[in-house]
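This section describes the prediction task in plain terms. A model, or a person checking by hand, is given the sequence of a single protein chain and must write out its three-dimensional structure as a string of tokens. No templates, partner chains or ligands are provided. The sample shown here is typical of the held-out split.
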Amino acid sequence: MKAVMLRRHGGLDALTVEEVPDRTAGPGEAVVRVHAVAVNRLDCWVRANIGHAYQARLPLIPGYDVAGEVVQVGAGVDTIAPGDRVYVHYDFSCGRCRYCLAGDESLCDRYGVMGVDHDGGYAELVIAPQRNLFALDESVSFQAAAAAGSVYLTAYHMLFAKAGVRAGQTVLVVAAGSGVSGAAAQLAAWAGARVVATAGTREKADRAVALGAEAGLVHSEPGWSDEVRRLTGGRGVDCAIDHVGTATFSEVVRSLAGGGKMVLCGASSGSQVELDLIDLFARQIAIIGSSDGSRAELLEVLRLLAEGVVEPVVDRVLTLDEAAKAQQLLEERRHFGRILLDPTL
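The expected answer:
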């Protein structure tokens, strides 16, 4: 089969397109023909060996937001069959520890991620345990499923499990042109919250408004938190969703209302920040880390997708041969929505 391989850490030239052996399903596994795989920020971090949270196993096929068709099943597989359309969930965990049983599988001591320590979906075929395969409604395209996948699951968990967002609250969504934040804007609006969005450029901020945000601000401009407070009558927002980190952190904290919650799932601009602890406890604000989401939440995301409640934004679809270009576009922030690869093209 054709696949994008990462055999060493480095720049974009570390990604090579090769012919590798086809996959064969073992007991409890299935082989899926990939019809769409999203390109994520984590793919770039793994390639460049940035950060300490993920220790990649090389050589590796990147990519973890996969949708496709089952082509082979192994012994003992009884919940899916060849021809089934599926979303391939990306996490690997024991399923039995206290964290897994509570739905916090990303805290499992045996936690792994497709495209990090298991081969991923930048390929014509991918292999996964049957517990990782979720049936897709006929109304959901492969591209929509891959584009939704991890970002809607992450946003859902941040908004509702971590922040407890409810109708009537105001949510600040930082970097709305990205997958997670675009998903958060849609999900918060669905829940009845007011949404204020930021983006790195005026064009992207205006697009966020066109997609349903009440206001769009440019977070590359200094002092934008003053405008957030003006829009909220001086109060600030109840919840802020951020994955940018260093470049936006201080302004996001200033945007919070008393008792507000900032939920972080990444640090694309850097991970080192300054924080006034007196401000933290005097205003009783909470800064919460979040990662992934539960399988039950994934089922809810797929239901909302099938019902048309949420609709992921796809920036463009490229071929496997254009994987390096896709990551470059992501790193240079020359996108709005998800960038996908289609190995069938």
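For orientation: The CA atoms of residues 86 and 135 lie 5 Å apart.
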